[in-house]
Amino acid sequence: MTGMTVLYPIIGLVGLISAGFIYLSIRKIEVKNPTMVDISEAIHRGAMVFLRREYTILAVFVLAVFGILSAFITIQTGLAFLVGACSSMLAGFFGMKAETRANVRTSQAANESGIARALSVAFSGGAVMGLSVASLGLIGVSIAYILYTNGIIQASDINGFAMGASSIALFARVGGGIYTKSADVGADLVGKVEAGIPEDDPRNPATIADNVGDCVGDTAGMGADIFESYVGSIIATIAIAAAGSSAVLNITEENKLTYILLPVLLVTIGLIASLIGVGSIRVLKNMNPAAALRTSTILSAVLMLAGALLAVNSLGLELGIFGAIFMGTLSGIVIGLLTEWYTGGSPVRRIADSCRTGVATNIISGLAVGMQSTAAPILMIAATILVAYNFAGLYGIGIAAVGMLGTVGITMSVDAYGPIADNAGGISEMSGLGKETRSITDSLDALGNTTAAIGKGFAIGSAALTALALYSAYAKTVGLTSINLIDPLVVVGLLLGGVLPFFIGDLTMSSVGKAAFAMVEEVRRQFRDIPGLMEGKAKPDTARCVDISTRAALKEMVLPGLVAVLTPVIVGLGLGPTALGGMLAGATLSGVLLALFMANAGGAWDNAKKLIENGYLGGKGSDAHKAAVVGDTVGDPFKDTSGPSMNILIKLMSIVSLVIAPLL
Amino acid sequence: MTGMTVLYPIIGLVGLISAGFIYLSIRKIEVKNPTMVDISEAIHRGAMVFLRREYTILAVFVLAVFGILSAFITIQTGLAFLVGACSSMLAGFFGMKAETRANVRTSQAANESGIARALSVAFSGGAVMGLSVASLGLIGVSIAYILYTNGIIQASDINGFAMGASSIALFARVGGGIYTKSADVGADLVGKVEAGIPEDDPRNPATIADNVGDCVGDTAGMGADIFESYVGSIIATIAIAAAGSSAVLNITEENKLTYILLPVLLVTIGLIASLIGVGSIRVLKNMNPAAALRTSTILSAVLMLAGALLAVNSLGLELGIFGAIFMGTLSGIVIGLLTEWYTGGSPVRRIADSCRTGVATNIISGLAVGMQSTAAPILMIAATILVAYNFAGLYGIGIAAVGMLGTVGITMSVDAYGPIADNAGGISEMSGLGKETRSITDSLDALGNTTAAIGKGFAIGSAALTALALYSAYAKTVGLTSINLIDPLVVVGLLLGGVLPFFIGDLTMSSVGKAAFAMVEEVRRQFRDIPGLMEGKAKPDTARCVDISTRAALKEMVLPGLVAVLTPVIVGLGLGPTALGGMLAGATLSGVLLALFMANAGGAWDNAKKLIENGYLGGKGSDAHKAAVVGDTVGDPFKDTSGPSMNILIKLMSIVSLVIAPLL
Asked: Does A364 touch chain B (CB under 8 A)?
């Protein structure tokens, strides 16, 4: 198989072309209702304006870092960084294009043809994102692999590719998170609470921004996050293999290339498995939607594992490596299911019950559930590390992460389906498509919430494992045999690293607060100054709200981004490589804990509110419901801004450390 | 000075006798108003019932652990454990006795003689606790030292003393925290919100329980916490010295005893300095109360540092050791002041401002402030570690902690003054002593809130440093030269340790929720079933509420306690000493971060509410005030139950590890 390396980028290209065909098949569907066209155009425009302005700012950052890397590391690393950054931006762009075209068509399909067709359109939109992420990642790393085997670049140069992906991810996640929640909170606070109009009402000037937010936060942000984990896990595994032998595996100069090849081959198999999974939805679309998505995901995972077993065997590698891959795949699934339980099972009922005694008890019980929810996923990650290491050393930890992320083509497709269904619901409401249509989009949206919860858990789990893999790669690359916790420098690093996620948590939550406040003022102003708006006789100035969110997101993403990129450099050069190792461990630990705590508390509050809205404890308008709404609002920045930022923070810090390793 | 070792326990005894005289001087004051006698008797009875029942349960636990330690470690360790546990219980008992006698007399002094006399009585009550803690600790460790120098026990046996103190501390802190907040939240939810009666109104059946809660949580719980840090830091330093030479200090078999003596000598000096500080209040009492407390604290610190310099010099030890002591003392003061700023400075105004847009934004900004507040104290701790280590190796970290805690006699006195002033306010209100008296007790109470904030910061900072010292002692005692973060077992330990504080946070918050709910039901029942209660014609059944809090606290403290004691044993024996090392590091990191986050968020919410109650943004009854009340209620278990539990958790886990070190 080592001779067939040229095949890998070609398979990546096939994936990308498939995504292109799916996109065209969506565009081909004609939207007939002019109101729907208007609304979807507004969302599309808002999303594209945000992307353009975001990428303009990022271009400056990317070029600056390219220059620095080229000067201080190698020009090849700088170029790899550039390609990684561009790939991530491209994936985000493709995903957003598809999402803003698929949303309105899902709405139309729900109206005209029913749930099966609507599911199919929404999933197709998601698949464009999923396949783009997987394919662009594969093309990048496989070309890098070919350049490396031909002696054109060093193995360490490839790290630049992951750093490029990571840098974009941070800004996309933080910026997207601030965007979506400032719009959401702003729209809700005035719309539902003060003006007394329902969600997604066309009179509310912030609704378009709210729907754009779903795209830029949940699609582009999540896509960049997963793309980063995907690329990061592959490159960490390559770096560990390149650093040579371990206690468990016998990596020699002769067989090293095989170990380096395996992660690339594995994701190639994963992409093929994902393509089959995506295709299977056409067959499965008449099943209940939840079952259809689940079946296709499991199908892909099983196919990839079968291929992995074959690959490990035919490359003549230790069978234990397959054990590590299997454990990684299993772990991803289990963590996803745990998240689903915490944000959908009995903890949600416990939170809903606490709404009986008011807001305070609702907040307390939500925070308690969030704290509780950290334990099981951490135990799963710990078990994965132990098993993977025993099977295949540090390489096992890396390849387990790759195993978890191998079928990203399908998992990301399922994930990106959610915001499309959410948008479709908004468009149906704003266009007045009637109760029946809304009930179809509601049920697709509810499924989207479940897949989003699973997706979030998966994103955290994969980030944790990827960060640990990158961390191992860092230690191996710097040539550290010990990061000794008895050494006070390491303890100091641990403390500094541990505090960073809290600091970023504060920054991002405060940003949402500020931006939401500006949004509230603007919406109030429009209701006051635009005559006839409340009566539905005049149109709101939605572009202004879009602009407020855009500006706030772009302004507020800069500081967290710089903190994440610069602290490893400062600590590494100032206190040395072992202190930096301690810092990475501290940041990963507290970052993963906060990510789980915040994401799950937020998700559980959200669903407790939905439970009450569905009639529990008196339903909408009851005192319990009012308490639940507050919990949901607190949970919004928790689950969609600050929590997800942690994923990127820990990966980005690790990859920056890996890239600057030659300087230490 | 090594020849005068018999003097140390005698000085401890002098401290204890001074505390006794102060207590008698309080009791001598006759309470004239029969209503006040009744109320104070009810509080006293409630507190004593709680202590008796708590100590009955603890006796079983203590005897069981005594047996286990005697069987598996040494009988001497078991005995040391027993003495440590009894000392902690005794300190708690003395403190509670003094508090429940001083509260009513403070109230009377405020009514009859004005603020200076009231301050003096309240502070005397606190001083009984402060001096008891310092003296009992000194007597225990100095006698252990004498037994050790005479070859009767091993240095490692002394660890049992710290473990005894720690075990009691955990139950006292967790039980006390659950007690005080279930009563507080229960009283507030029904009293203020539903029945519309003010705080501490005699018609509310839960007010007595609420006031008992101030004693058992803020006095006994805090006292046990500080006692544990005090004893733990001394013993960690002894253990480090006993383990022998280090990179920085040249500890030989000949001079080892001098290094072991220093911490004991240092706290002896600290106790003398504290006695002078306590006495100085008599001279300073006509100053403004805040200035008086501050002056006496600083006076003691300066005296102790002067004595420390002298001691280090005359013992012929390296001067760098004094540098470490100085850094520890400084660090304790700075962390206290940082806490005061976060719970009293501009962050509080920021939270109050966020109440304008409702509860949700208030909660979000409080959580953000809590996260932000972790950074500066952690940087201070990190700086202390670096400086202390550079001056005097691992021994420096231990002795810095002792330096921070050396003047515990005065810092704990100031701290224990707070709940007495709080109680005095409650008694004045319940006895109808009139506006003028209430205004005096209010101003003393406000000062108490400030000292409580500083005390909480100090408790966290000292817990962190003590835990790190114990951790170093553990590593040295087991003979580990490396706890390597590249070793997956250590990473697994780190992850498991990191999750424990979140788990304990969940348990304790949920316990408060459950207990508060039971209290709400009972208060509602009494208002419903007792005719004339609302009109003030009938008396509420306060004993029943006291019983509910007592039962809940005792029941709910067991699980967190067992988790903290057993996990180090299980991980140490199951995964080995390096994994246990990783676990301690993980637990300390995430425990300190959560402690700071929760304590400061809670304190800031509390003071934001007070700011609004003092007229900001419309004052009491405004919408902003309603939002602020919810934030305060969420903050209650944060700052008084879950946050403080972390301090003990991290110390207890470290000390248990140190004690079981011979088994590993």
From this structure: yes
A540 three-state secondary structure: coil
Instruction: Identify the pLDDT of residue B286.
Output: 82
Q: Specify whether the CB–CB gap between B400 and B325 falls below 8 A.
A: yes
A25/A20 Cα distance (integer angstroms): 9
Q: Which residues neighbour B379 within 8 Å (Cβ) at sequence distance 6 or greater?
A: A496, A499
User: pLDDT tens digit string along B79-132?
Assistant: 999 999 999 999 999 999 999 999 999 999 999 999 999 999 999 999 999 999
Contacts of B354 in chain A (CB under 8 A): 513
Read off the amino acid at residue B230.
Answer: Y
Q: Which residue of B has its CA nearest to A637?
A: B364
Indicate the SS3 state at residue B484: strand
Please, which residues bridge with residue B484 across strands? A484
Q: Which residues of B touch A401 (CB under 8 A)?
A: none
Q: From the CA of A33, how many Å to the nearest CA of chain B?
A: 38
| Mean pLDDT score, A442-449 | 86
pLDDT at B190 over 80: no
Q: Which of residues 370-409 of A touch B (CB under 8 A)?
A: 371-372, 374-375, 378-379, 381-382, 385-386, 389, 394, 397
**What's the pLDDT score for residue A238?**
92
B363 touches chain A (CB under 8 A): yes
| 3-state SS, one letter per residue, for A460-499 | HHHHHHHHHHHHHHHHHHHCCCCCECCCHHHHHHHHHHHH
- pLDDT on residue A3: 61
Contact state of A593 with B589 under an 8 Å Cβ cutoff: no
Q: Which two tokens mark A399?
A: 């390849």
pLDDT digits (tens, 9 = 90+) for A273-285: 999 999 998 888 7
Helix (H, G, I), strand (E, B) or coil at A57: helix
pLDDT (0 to 100) of residue A527: 86
> Which chain B residues have a beta carbon less than 8 Å from that of A589?
494-495, 498, 586, 589-590
ipTM, two decimals, is 0.93
Whole-angstrom Cα distance, residue B581 to residue B583?
5
Query: Can you give the pLDDT at residue B193?
Result: 67
- Residue A476: what residue type? K
Chain B contact present for A589, CB below 8 A = yes
Q: What is the pLDDT of residue B543?
A: 85
CA angle B354, B356, B362 (to 5 degrees): 35
Q: Report, as an integer, the average pLDDT of A511-522.
A: 87
C-alpha distances in Å from residue B511, one per residue of A33, A395, B522, B558, B642: 55, 43, 17, 11, 10
The SS3 of residue B483 is coil
Residues 6+ apart with CB under 8 A from B45: none
Q: Which of residues 469-528 of B touch A (CB under 8 A)?
A: 472, 475, 480-486, 488-492, 494-496, 498-499, 502-503, 505-506, 509-510, 512-513, 516-517, 520
- Our CA-based measurement puts residue B334 at a distance from the nearest CA of chain A, in whole angstroms, of 18
Rounded to the nearest integer, the mean pLDDT of chain B is 91
Residue B452's nearest CA partner among B628, B639, B183, B229 is B639
Q: How many CB atoms lie within 10 A of CB A72?
A: 14
% of chain A residues with pLDDT over 90 = 62
Return d(Cα B527, Cα B663) in angstroms, integer: 57
- Which residues from chain A sit within 8 angstroms of residue B567, using beta carbons? none
**pLDDT exceeds cutoff 60 at B1:** no
Nearest CA in chain A to B475: A486
**Residue B535: C-alpha distances to residues A518, B528, B539, B545 (Å):** 48, 12, 10, 20
Q: DSSP readout, B603-650?
A: HHHHHHHHHHHTTGGG-TTSHHHHHHHHHHHHHHHIIIIIHHHHHHHH
DSSP category for residue A157: G
**Structure tokens, B625:** 């005030």
